[in-house]
Design goal:
The complex is a heterodimer. Chain A has six helices and nine strands. The chains are: A alpha/beta, B alpha+beta.
Amino acid sequence: MTIREEQIREKLLESLAGKAEGLLEAGRFGAVFAHAGIGKTALMVQLAIRSMLRGKNVLHVSLHDPVQKVALWYEELFQDAARRQGMAGAQRLWESLVPHRFIMTFRVDGFSVPRLAERLEDLAAQGIFRPEMVIIDGFPFEETSLEALADLKKMAGQGGFYGWFTVHTHRYETPEADGIPQRLKPVSSLFDVVLEMTPDKERIRIRSLKGAGLTLEGGSLLLDPSSMLIRAEVAGG
Amino acid sequence: MITDIANVRNIGISAHIDSGKTTLTERILYYTKRIRAMHDVKGKDGVGATMDSMELEKERGITIASAATFCQWKGHEINIIDTPGHVDFTIEVERSLRVLDGAILVLCSVGGVQSQSITVDQQMKRYHVPCIAFINKCDRSGADPFRVISQLQSKLGHNAVAMQIPIGLEINFSGVVDLLTMKALYFDGEHGEEVRVEEVPPELEEKARKKREEMLDAISLFSDELTEALLEGGPISEDLILEAVRRGTLARQLTPVFMGSAYKNRGVQPLLDAVSRYLPCPSDVENTALDMDHEEVPVSLSCDPEQPTVAFAFKLEDGAYGQLTYIRVYQGSAARGTTVINARSGKKVKIGRVVRMHADQMEDIDAVNAGYIGALFGIECSSGDTFISPGVNLTMTSMYVPEPVISLAIVPKDNKSQTNLSKALGRFTREDPTFRTHVDQETSETIIEGMGELHLEIYVERMRREYGCEVTTGHPRVAGARETVFIDGIKQGRIPKEFIPAVEKGFRLCLAKGPKMEFPVTGIRVVINDGASHAVDSSDMAFQAAARGAFREAYGRAKPIILEPIMKVVVETPTEFQGAVMGLLNQRRGMIIGAQDEGPQCVVEAQVPLAEMFGYSTVLRSATQGKAQFTMEFAAYRQVPVSIAEKIAEEVAQRKKSAA
């Protein structure tokens, strides 16, 4: 990597979801929940790009979108962040990042945790891809047993990856007293970090409900709905 | 010959590779009594299905050339064009679609809508070909015709409506319930030739009623009478339904869906009924030609044998008795002994023998009338030519011809091959506009260009078999040239104007073959800002040489990198082979973008250097029991990894040394 590319990389790291990084380590699980359209995928993709910029492998599992659409999320968020930093010529950096990403899509009815585990083992056994971060976008919590998920977590510990799960909540659902959605309850013991995204005036606020939390003063991160980029809350802003 | 044009159907059978369309065609020909025995595509009896007329096709189990054949069914005359299913032969498919009035879209009840079905569907859209769908292989394990129907709706956007429901599925598949008559159809006899009509089995009554209602609801859009009858709640006549389905189909707003298993001889006769009921006859379709006397204004053709002739040559074949030209007559007739004009060359052509084809056999006829498909003997022409009566000056629209994407260098092994090579190439380029050839001026190698690796492989194979021409081939490359900028920024005339072109030529020669690796050089801007000349010694050659020297010096300092073509490769495979498919791509320096799981099938998308894709089809076939297919298209140029670049440098050095 040239010095210039190194600079670009550093700048991008600053601009993308800075404080949300490092919340999880290998063998840990995190969950993000929000209503539809709030920006769960945008948040996840930014975390993923950050990891990729650090040379880490990301497996993105989507249960809703086709491969091309997921790939487009990455490309758009990366290019947008690069443009905002006024960086031309980030194309080569982008090309160097793509090999760190693997997209896997399932139809919701064809997805199961054992099936995913089988795929992961196959990829690792053939030396094709070893993820350090796994995103499961649109995880079907109600159809997943505690054991299956616990097995996956064990695998994460052995395989050296951590997992982020997104949960799509509905407005009619009333969360538990601690704010964690009911659907997550039966398996919530397996999650080390739980984040909630809520619209707040013209921003999206990201709150930690469980886990190490976001230790920013003032307590939260914001997602700018126009760019879908995350930034720390600016005092008075 | 039947004279009522309303009873003529020119249809194609289009499908993904291996969905069984050749078997289906074979069965159609059997039931219409054009052939007496059945064979299978990869038959144990070594005969092979009748439509695959080329030896090569029989061996590979795929259909390459679109043989035209005709048959009769219940007073209708059906001309069938068997179209190739592989993406590499797209031009063949396009050409056949050009002359069709309707098509059967064959889908596999297990595989469903696959990538090739999508390509074929787009082509049908381009030529406005109405179609009916046949869901084949309902006897296979994993068969689910209703899943395929929903894919037709979601993936291809068809308004697909089931006209039948299956009786049993997979191993228990025994017949179909016809939702039009609400009768069960079974297929008896050794080859399913006897259709037995029974009452709907009680366990299917409820489902059949539900599906019939869905069907009536969908087709009522195309008939006010039917809508009224439905509202009144009385019995609905069959004719009313037939008319509505036909109207919707002809407008391409409805795709009636039929099902069966050609291999097990089930459901083929009702499909033939559907062809005669719902697909258009030649006069239902409006065809236009371009008037060359009036700036190519489109002119409507009338399907009348008495009008001046307009016929279109859509396929050439090299038969035992010379060149066979398949034609579709749009207007007038092509009769034995008459003279027509080739609209492209302006040459007069006398029609000798006129025949009607049935794959390898033929039948002599007097004339091919408007609306019909037939073949002529001994006519010199290229495919895509138009034949017209003297006095009219029309041409059928020139066909859309895609640019070739892959090129391959070939060298004949001996003298005999050298002579035959030019014959073979002459024939192939006339038959197939997507197949091109030229001679590389520097290496004197013959370069062939085509739509894909398999496309070129097949031609290399045909050279060997049909022309006894053995060639060695190089590695396939991406076809097409790229541009570079040259700017003349010279001040005060230090180089006389007349030598500037020589300087430019010198640079361009360097760009065509880089000094280091001998690859073309791109992404370069050349600005000439200063120079000197001598009144006596300056010459074109001298300036060319100076340009070369300048280029070499600057080029070395610019730290050039080698770019290689990267292909987007999409593999469709049964899920059980997903791991193997990814492994293969990975071994070939492939970067896997993603894997899309769609139940029994999955799609793996990757970017792979073209250099590594050589022979991939063979490896893929053996790794997946021939059940996976792939498509490949050019994606981008990307820098070659250092280790590979070193290897190339070594090879080039070696080559230079041995050449010296």
